[in-house]
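Reviewer 2 asked us to include a model.

Predict the structure of this chain.
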Amino acid sequence: MDNLKAAQNVSYGIEKIFADAEDFFPINGTDYVEFYVGNAKQAAHYYKTAFGFQSLAYAGLETGSRDRTSYVLVQDKIRLVLTTALNSDNPVAEHVKKHGDAVKVIALWVDDATEAFNITVQRGAKPYMEPREESDAHGHVVRSGIHTYGDTVHIFVERKNYNGIFLPGYTAWNSTYNPPQKGFRYIDHMVGNVELGEMNTWADFYRRTMGFANLVTFDDKDISTQYTALMSKVMSNGNGRIKFPLNEPAKGIKKSQIEEFLDFYEGPGCQHIAIATNDIVNSVRDMRNSGVEFLYVPGEYYDTVANRVGEIDEDLAILKELGIMVDRDEEGYLLQIFTRPVEDRPTLFFEVIQRKGAKSFGKGNFKALFESIEAEQERRGTL
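Predicted model (structure tokens):
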């Protein structure tokens, strides 16, 4: 019980940090995440089958888009846009050639996209998209955008004057194939991997341009194994709806997972997307039955869980069977699990998370998680 008491006494000062965020402009949440992919039609089938996303909207040749095709998927508050190029001389194709299938756009829902653009650019952000109004019979949307780490961008979306299916230029995507949803509700956080020495640069970027605050910092003593280590800072806006952990490698005996990502991604980028559920056991069981592969958690991990986290609502035997990890902070506990990379390159993966009061990120699971990732790296010959 000493470990449990220690965990309960840990204080990240999270509520104070939320209050300390200046929020130079309101951010209501994640509007959508856009992937640039080699084949959007096939990628859409995968995310529908494996993750339970539903068909929402489509843009392509039939809607007047001459250079790219996009499929939009939805599950509760999560919208994924999968975009592919229609010719080789295209920025989408260039992005896929360099990075593989990957996150290009993290779109943020704002009250005023022009204000968001002006404030961030005035405070040092590099412009990506000047504010522009896009309209159709359902009203108009204003979008703007800025560059962030690597080739990743933020697009600010103002949609208060729009009631269409998604955005102007898209039509409803009616499909006879929509497998059951898997209980995902919203994006909890999105993690970016940056080069050695750049974590503080990008943490300062979010603080300076958007008024984010540093929610929690993990150093190489927190996130390390016998062989590898990394450092991380979690940046958050004031309402806590947007959380961006930023990772950089730390010196170790062997190549860390961050270095492996940077090598195969060929630069900084989005490492993983954490999606929230209210029933992680059923979500994970359904995903496994749909072919999703998860990182292996050694059975001995569960020998000490009860002592470390105390009483929980879930059956520990079922969590062990499914490989779901548990951690506790002073606010409650959380359950989490990580997929293997969903691309052939060892880059992007997903986290499934259920929060039972906890507001932290599973610090107590780091050692087991990173040993599991190292085992995967060793099999790939990249450790």
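The longest strand covers residues 27-36. Residues 366-380 form the longest helix (15 residues). We have added this to the supplementary material.
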